[in-house]
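re: ur question from yesterday

yeah so i grabbed the chain u mentioned. its 298 aa long if i counted rite. heres the sequnce exactly as i have it in my notes:
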Amino acid sequence: MIAEALGGWYANSLALIADAGHMLTDVAALCLTLGAFWFAQRPATSRKTYGYYRLEILAAFINGVALVLLSLWVIYEAVQRWAAPPDVRGLDLTLIAGGGLLVNIAAAYVLHADHKSDLNLRGAWLHVIGDLLGSVAAIAAGILIMAFGWLAADPVVSILISIVIIYGAWRLIEESVNVLLEGTPRHIDLSAVESAIMETEGVGGVHDLHVWTISSGIDALSAHISHEDDIAHAELLASVRGILHDRFGIDHLTIQMETLKLEAEAVYICETGVNCFEPARVPGRFHQAHGTNETHRS
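ran it thru and got these structure tokens back, copy pasting raw so excuse formatting
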């Protein structure tokens, strides 16, 4: 990082300076990621009943925002240089960027294994990939400058790589915000979950259905399930639990069992003025679902 920063100043290359800036945010991102992992291991308390898992999501969100802000700064600087490209030492740019590329490849390899399933790790991995692409762009710019004297190559490749980084970071921000808002996970089809529960033998209806993510890889569900009076609660609950585990990988469940006869006496959150999602009606059943809400209380 320090070598690229000094090399960028010496070679007068924005691509190298930008890459060094990305590496600086990498150090902060990795520290934030490790800190969040460590803090998330703390046990749950009466005031933090889910523990500190959400810190990993907050770390991913912060990493995404940092990437976007840094990339926007690089684009701004690149536009200024594009109008009047300064002299850039092409050979020095290429050699220094080559060294940075080797370091970034090693870091990306270390983080690659779990980046798809963990938002926090994905944030750190995106930082490293941004650096790797920045090094590749800097090498390309150096070659173009040496071969053709095209000084504008330095700001042009900086803009292109920044756009790619913003695209990846924006997706990270979207997924983080969806978790923080306790929205339905992207890989879960709420209608499919409702149908799976309704198809379970003995189930008469389902309402107040919520599916949300506690942290990466930890999904939760809560619902009210109604049934006939002669159905055993324990057996029905075991059947529903097995279906939700096998088909959707959801194990953290909070299910309230109700009989159809007494169901109308219950007070539902969707009938108390809360803005709720209304699911499709299920024909041919002896109960029609009330509203469901995609959000859930903490």
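noticed a couple things. The chain is about 60% helix and 10% strand. also Confidence is low (pLDDT under 50) at residues 281-298.
anyway ttyl
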